Every structure is written in structure tokens, then in C-alpha cells.
Amino acid sequence: MVSEADGQVNEVVVHSDAAEQTPKPISAGSTDAEELEKYVAIREELYKKAKEFNSKILGFETAIRRPYFHARPLNVAELENWHSYLDFIESEGDLNKVVKLYERCLIACASYPEYWIRYVLCMEASGSMDLADNALARATQLFVKRQPEIHLFAARFKEQNGDIPGARAAYQLVHNEISPGFLEAIIKHANMERRLGKLEDAFSLYEQAIAIEKGKEHSQTLPMMYAQYSRFSYLVSGNAEKAREILIGALDQVQLSKPFLEAIIYFETILPPPKQIGYLESSVDKFIAPNSDGSAADREDVSSIFLEFLSLFGDAQSIKKAEDRHAKLFLPRRPMSDSRKRYAEDFLSSDKMKLARSYSSDPSPGQSLMSAYPNAQNQWPAGYGAQPQTWPSTTQAQTWTPGYSQQVDCNF
């Protein structure tokens, strides 16, 4: 009995020892330690990445002087810093960080259309059209709604995404409310209608805009509107006669200016022959007259441009007439400072030639003066000889001074 009891006791003891030797509690403790180690390692890795990222953006963050909105404009350095910061974040490829930074940027830069445009394009490129549409709506309806630039972008953006009615509405908003007579809006709207095959609608846009500008006194836009309409008409329809009629009709309606005359002279160069020089000559002659409203610099520039045009397409008589007129009006009217400068150059040139003669070796009777220059240059003092020499090169055989040569070239 005792032995059986002892056996039972021993059996119980053995069973208890077996339970204590079971590896399960030890295994569980080991697993917790490993999980904790993994967790700590992950957190340390995140901390290292965050610290590294923070070191990269520290310069950008430090340069943000005004993170809040204010009506006072930001300086150029702050605007460039925002662009650089956005470039960096976009290169990281984390859309969440990109969106957050754009939203931060648009607090300080809310009145700058360029950042709204960039935000929309970035979201479109990432495939987030909902975010792009949301940003565009906020820009056009609230933050920069009075600036035509954002509406022109909205029109193009909507056209590219198939929203033609929305694009037309954006253009009409600029024409009617934001900036009536804005030439860039008219050009882009007409070009869109041409792309859509609505050529008559495109012509109508120009004609309506011209009619409105005619009603304004001293319109600065009307001359260039005529020039652009003529060019557009020729390029899209190929009708050179109609294009010339538009320009000739404009001459009686507009005040002549350098940009307008430059435009019509250039346009005549691309039209097919025969070239019609008569209406250009009369307009240029009227503008470059001394009693015209143009500045002296503008009048001389237009005369020079017309001379270049005639050298390509005019005859000998028309070129001579234009050259004589140009010389009479502009060549004698050089500033006194230019005359003094030429006199000084002539004096220095002749003086250096005398010095060159005195320092050169005695040339033989058959030796030219120019061949003696190398010997003369070698005898300058060390400190002065290192300076670049400005007297004529050995290839010059003329005896007159460079200033006189330049004056002759200007006359012809």
C-alpha cells in the first residue's frame, strides 16, 4: 500500500516535473521578446528615416518666412523656395506628402495663379482628377477669380479633358467680365474654335472684338488685333488678298506704332509675291516723320526694319529712296557722347601707331609698317606688355581710322 502510495506520489511528482519542463511558457516568453525587438527595430528605422527626411527639408522650411496668407506680395526668394520645395516633394513620390505641401503652399500663395495651375497639373499627372477639379474650382471661383490667366488655363484644361462647353464658358467669362478685349484670350479662343472645325466662329470672334475696340478712344489693343486677325485669316484659309484687305483697312482705323508696323512688315514677308510695298512705304513714311507721335528710337528702328525688308524685296530705286530718307532723318542725329567716343578712339589709335613706329626696328624701304609690329610689341615693359593691344591688325591696309570706317559702314 505504501509502495503503491509512494508510487502514486512519485507518479504525481514525475507528472509535476514534466509539466514544469514543458517548453511552452519559455517559448511564449521568447516570442514576446522577439516581437518587442522587431517593434523597436521598426520604430528606430522610422525614426532614422524621419530624421533623414527632416534634414533634407530643413533648408526649405527655414526659408518660409510667411506661412500665413497676407495681401502683401511675397518676395522672389520666397516664391522660388516654394517651387523648389514642391519640386523636391514631388520627386519623393509620396502623394500624401505632395497634397499636404500644396495645401500649405496655397495658404501663403493663394493669390498666385501659377501655384494653383501647378497643383492642378500635378494632381492630373498622378491620376487624382477629383483633387485636380477641386483645386481648379477653388482657384477660378474664389481665390484668383479676377485674374484672366487662371481662366485661360481652365479653358485649356477643360478642352483637353473633353469639356468643350466648359471651355467656351471660361473664355466667355474672360471676354465679358474679367478682361474684355484681352488679346490673348481672343487668340486662344479662336484657335480652339478652329481646332473644333468652327472656322466661321473663329473669324466672328475677331470681328466682334474689333468692333468693340473701335468704340474705344485710343485703343492700344486694336492695332495688334487687326494684325493678328490678318495673320490668322491667311494661315488658316490661305487667302492672301483677304489678309491684305484687313491690314489696309486697319491703316485708317488705328494709330501707327512700332509694334504694329513691325507686325505688318513681317507679315508682308511671308505673303506670296508679288509684294505690295506701296502701302507699307506710305505708313512707314508717315510714322518716321519728325512730327509723328513716335519716339526717336522707335522711328529709327522702324526705318531700319523697312530698309531690311526693301533689301530683300525692293528694287534699286526704292532702296535708294529709303536710304536717303534714313540718312537725312537719323544719321546726323547722333548723341554728342558718341561723337566724343569716336574722337577718343581715333586719337588713341593714331597715338598708338606713333608709339609702334618709335619702338619698332628700322624696316627696310620695301618692308611695310605692319610687319614691324611684332618687334614693337616685344619692347613694351613687362607690366604693360601683358595688356591686350588695340591697334589695327596686320590685315588692315587702310590708312583711315576705325572710327571713320564705322561711320562709312553705317551710311551704307
From TrEMBL:
Family statement drawn from the similarity comment of this UniProt entry: Belongs to the PRP39 family.
Keywords: mRNA processing, mRNA splicing, Nucleus, Repeat
Name listed for the protein in its UniProt record: Suppressor of forked domain-containing protein
GO molecular function: pre-mRNA 5'-splice site binding
Record-level GO cellular component terms: commitment complex; U1 snRNP; U2-type prespliceosome
Subcellular location as annotated: Nucleus
Gene Ontology BP annotations: mRNA 5'-splice site recognition
Position of the signal peptide: none
Superkingdom of the source species: Eukaryota
